[in-house]
Structures are given as C-alpha cells and as structure tokens.
Amino acid sequence: MSIERLVVIGGDAAGLSAAAQARRLRDASELDIVVLEQGPEISYSACGIPYWIGGLVEDRDRLLARTPADFAAQDVLVRTDTRAEGIDLAAGEVVAAGGERLGYDSLVVATGGKPLRPPIAGLDAAGVHGVHRLADGADIRAAIAAGAKRAVVLGGGYIGLEMAEVLQTRGLEVTVVLADPLPMAQLDEDMGRHVCAAMGAMGIDVQPGQPVREIEVGVDGAVRAVCTDEGSYDTDLVVLGLGMGPETTLAREAGLALGATGALDVAHTQRSRSHPEVFAAGDCAQTFHRITGEAVHVALGTHANKQGRVAGSVIGGRPARFAGVLGTAMTKVGDLEVARTGLCTTQAEQSGYDYRTELIRSSTRAGYYPGATPIHVKIITERGSGVVLGAQIVGGPGSGKRIDVFATAIWAGMTAEELAGSDLSYAPPFSPTYDPVVVAARVASRSARD
Q1: Which tens digits make up the pLDDT trace of 42-89?
Q2: Residue 2: which pLDDT band, with cuts at 50, 70 and 90?
Q3: Which class for 199: exposed (0-12), middle (13-18), buried (19 or more C-beta within 10 A)?
C-alpha cells in the first residue's frame, strides 16, 4: 500500500494543529506529513509578543510552545526557513525555495495573516513595525534599548491598546492615532468612551478621528513624525495596530478560490470549495458568524487552532465541522479590562435584527470587599424573543473573563430570562451576590416583557 503525503504550508497554530491531529488519526506507515515554515521558529504565541516587549515575559523562548524536534518525535517533519514559493494544483505539488517540488495527496494552507498596511507614504521606513512575528518584537525591543523616547501607535484595536500600554510601561511617551472616533471600534460608542477615558487617565495621548496622511522620514531614512490633517506627532518609533488581513498571495496566485472577505473560501470542514484536496485554516481562511451565518474574517489564535484540528480530522478520516465564530475577545489597557462577544449594535442592525440594549453598572466584587472596582456590562437581545445576541464588558480587574458566560449563553441560544436564572457562583472576593452578568440579563429579561 502506497503512503499518502500531507503537506502543510505554515508552521504555527492552524498548520501544526492540522498536522498533529492528522498524525493522531493516521500513523507514519499510512501518512507522511511535511510542514514548511518560512521563518526560523514554529508554534509561537504572537499574542504574547507585546508582553515580551513590555518585559512581563522576560525570556523570548517562553513564547515557543513546541519545537521541530517535538514534532519529529511524532513522525512529523517540520522544515523551518523553507519558504513555499508556489502551489501547482494541477500537478498536486508545492514548489519550495530553490525549485524543489513536493507532491501531496492533501494540502493544508495555513499561511496566516498579515498586518494591514494602508497606502501611506513612509510606512515602509525604518522604525515602522508590525507586531506579528518574533522578529518584530525583537526589533521593537532593540529600538527601545537604543534610546527611543517617543512612540506613535496607529490604531486602537486589541494590538493597539496592548502596545500603547507596554510602551508606556517601558518609559516611552505614547500617542495613539486613530482614524475612528474612539478606540476599540469593535465596541459600541458608549462602551468605547470608557476605554478612551481610561487611556487618557493613564497619560496616553489619544488622537481620534485622524487618518494618517504620511509618515515623515528623516535624511537617515528613519521615521521622524506621523502626519495627519490635524497635526504632526514627533516620534522615534511607529507601531502598526491597524488589524490583520488574510495572507493569501500564494493561494490566490495558484488559483484557489477566495471568499467575500478576501480570505480563502472553505466549507465547514475547512476544505477548499474550489479544490477538494486542499484545506485552509487559521487567519488565511474565511469563516462564518454563528449568529448570522454570514461570511466573516476573524484573526484569532483560538479559531486557528480549532480550524486546524478540523482539517486534520477530516484528512485523518474522522468527520468534523467547524462550528463558526462569535468574535469573542478581550484585552486590557492598564487596569481596565475590555471584552466583547456576539453582535454589537451596528452588526445587529446590519443583519436586520430588531434588537434592544441594556447597560448596567455594578461592581467586580462585593462592594465592601477590598479591591472592588466598577464594571459596565452591555447586553444586546432580540426584541420579542429575548434571545441574547451580544454583550460587551468594560471594567476593573476581574471583569473581562465574565464575557465567556455571555459567549456560552449565545452559543446555546439562551434568552436573557434563562441567563438571569442561571446558577452562577458567588463569594465576596469574586462577585456581588448577584453577578453583573445576571443583573444585566435580568434587566434585559424585564425589558423583553414590557
């Protein structure tokens, strides 16, 4: 019996999850697995890079989950510093650097994402950094060590907030320049205002509503300032926090179909809709929203790992389907924790829902317990049915992970009334008698009956 071959392009969350799961289901006598990774490291936590830059993680290698040797012990060959240059779909081959051709029976494209880089003059200058790879983190750390004093962060999403905080922690003067009117555009305006106020209280200079016109570059080729129509902000360092797009160059040039979001178009099995022998997973792949069913692109490691596992299961002969996303995510800036799940009001309106919202203010702990801080919870429900469509949380330490209760309720299709009656834990160090989640759900359930 001939041995089949699985080739995986990309050695991070999605690609290695696919390889590991396929190996669990089929041994080396049946399936040869080769992973091509263009960089020197695999299986690293990109989400941890800001905290390595900030010094909270002292050793870079703590961000490495597994090594090529770990996979070799499972009969998975991982080839680092090996760039895939092309995919020959007709021949069933991947073309690696130097012209080497690797035949495959199944192919997983896990090329990940790339930082969004709008067409702005000077954006490719020395001193402008993404926060995507370990090399990016090393470059920013080196700039700080070389004496950078001022930093401008472009964008106020998850990466923008995290980088603004850690750069300030490292002693830099930090300005955050936003095209949007508020940071965290994933939140509704009333919740985003809390985030903006907290950043200002920390001493971070937030400049909203100012699309960048150009990056001013000195005679030495390094950045000098970020320029908008409203002003110019001197800087030694520019960090891109404008979000992530799918890296599909290789797949697009090969002729694999892309979806409405610009990411690779795949079925719920992660199988390409245009070429059934090809799978795609992670930040390069399009997925769907669990509530609306609409095509979305959400770049998160949680989804990448799950999608890779689905692809590996199907390749290994076990039926599997990806169940969709809610966009559940959280971050922090200073002591303020920020989290969201499901639909915000803009998304609910665009999807045609008749919705209503409730916003409550409570406490992270029993009010008399030391360390209790305010928490703001917003819940979005469908008018009439009371089904929970989304939630947002902004508050002090202990606030953010409460979003997982809302995410679970939305996943299960619960109503606000059902959530209000759920049996959540209580102890003064962790929660008031009625947890803020329950309070928000109870208020929403009362409104549903009005």
Answers
A1: 999 999 999 999 999 999 999 999 999 999 999 999 999 999 999 999
A2: confident
A3: buried
pLDDT tens-digit series, residues 155-182:
999 999 999 999 999 999 999 999 999 9
pLDDT (tens digit per residue) in 9-30: 999 999 999 999 999 999 999 9
- Do residues 394 and 336 lie in contact, with contact meaning Cβ atoms separated by under 8 Å? yes
Compute the average pLDDT of residues 418-426. 96
Is 262 in contact with 248 (CB distance < 8 Å)? yes
Residue 385 token pair: 């049915």
Query: What residues have CB less than 8 Å from 39, skipping those under 6 apart?
Result: 11, 80, 81, 133, 135
**How does residue 271 score in pLDDT terms, banded at 50, 70 and 90?**
very high
| Cβ–Cβ under 8 Å, residues 137 and 48 | no
Q: Which domains does the chain have, with CATH numbers?
A: 4-42+57-112+245-316 (3.50.50.60), 128-242 (3.50.50.60), 335-448 (3.30.390.30)
Measured between alpha carbons, how far is 376 from 399 in angstroms, rounded to an integer? 9
SS3 content of the chain, % helix, strand, coil (to 5): 30, 30, 40
DSSP string, 315-352: HHT-------B---EEEEETTEEEEEEE--HHHHHHTT
Evaluate if residue 448 carries a pLDDT over 70: no
Q: What percent of the chain has pLDDT over 70?
A: 99
pTM of the model: 0.94
Question: How many C-beta atoms surround the C-beta of residue 396 within 10 A?
Answer: 19
Q: Order of strands, edge to edge, in the sheet holding 223-228? A: 212-217, 223-228, 232-234
CA distance 261 to 296: 6
Backbone angles phi, psi at 80, to 5 degrees: -80, 165
Rounded CA separation 290/351 (Å): 12
Q: Using the CB atoms, write b or e for 336-362: b if 16+ within 10 Å.
A: bbbbbbbbbbebbeeeebebbbbebeb
Angle at 443 between CA 442 and CA 444, to 5 degrees: 90
User: At a CB cut-off of 8 Å and minimum separation 6, what does 379 contact?
Assistant: 357, 358, 388, 390, 391, 406, 416, 440, 441, 443, 444
Sheet order of strands, 101-103 included = 84-88, 93-96, 101-103
Q: What is the pLDDT of residues 297-346, one digit of tens each?
A: 999 999 999 999 999 999 999 999 999 999 999 999 999 999 999 999 99
Q: Which two tokens stand for residue 361?
A: 């203010």
Main-chain dihedrals φ then ψ at residue 72, nearest 5 degrees: -60, -35
Write out the catalytic residue numbers.
47
